[in-house]
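REQUEST FORM: STRUCTURE PREDICTION
Request ID: SP-0412
Submitted by: Lab K.M.
Chain count: 1
Length (residues): 260
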Amino acid sequence: MFSPASRYGIAGATLALWALTACGTSSGGGDNPTTAPTTTQAAAKDKGPQCIGEAPADGVHVLRGGGFRLPGGGGVQYAAATADGTSRTATLRDGAGYGAGQQQWTVKPGSRLTVSGHAYTVRQVCSYRVVLEPKDAKDKAALAAAPESMEFAGGAADNALCFTTNRAVLAAASKSFPAKGQPLSLLDNGSVKQLPTGPSLTVSYVDTAAGTAGLGANCAGVPVAIYKDVSVGDTVEFSGVLFEVSGLTEQAVRLTRTSE
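STATUS: Completed
RESULT:
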């Protein structure tokens, strides 16, 4: 097992870069989101609010620290978040995976962006996700399309399972988790929880002294979520399902499901 003060980053694949233009303020470069800090320090407490805006039922969920492949060959990452107690913004980075020299923008609900010629509107910004809504009906249909198979194969072949709004896929992923109110334990010993629809969940570190942990998910060769420095009470999301961090030990991180 890892020692309490040890931190290990979750390795992510570096993918090709795609052009991204957006309404919002450019904030320059950024640190590699797939690498956790190497020193132990108290995590800065998010001042909230937890979410701003409303998420449409067919919205694209881009999870904190992770990336999402979009129709047309583009991708976007949720690189960083800012909250001051009354408002919340998110830093989005172009491409589904980290690469040197990428541009990034600060957005809020209502911001519009274009990824590889495809238009999206930011509908919700949360501490744990950003929700985008495609403008074009063809893009909505592409994201909601049923996969050829519900069995994951590995790599880019799983795009239709990993980067989707298809209700059957999300329902299958949901059924692989405990029911609402029930716990899920992720072991801090290098083990991986593999979901039937592709995503794999891991614990990158547990620091019991600071009361924090790092959680991650990978799918189709992309880090789709990297939650750094989460503590008890924080919300995380995997495959459309919400959890609250309910316990941290040297051996495991315990999550309690909070959504249906």
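NOTES: Confidence is low (pLDDT under 50) at residues 1-42.
Reviewed by: T.R.
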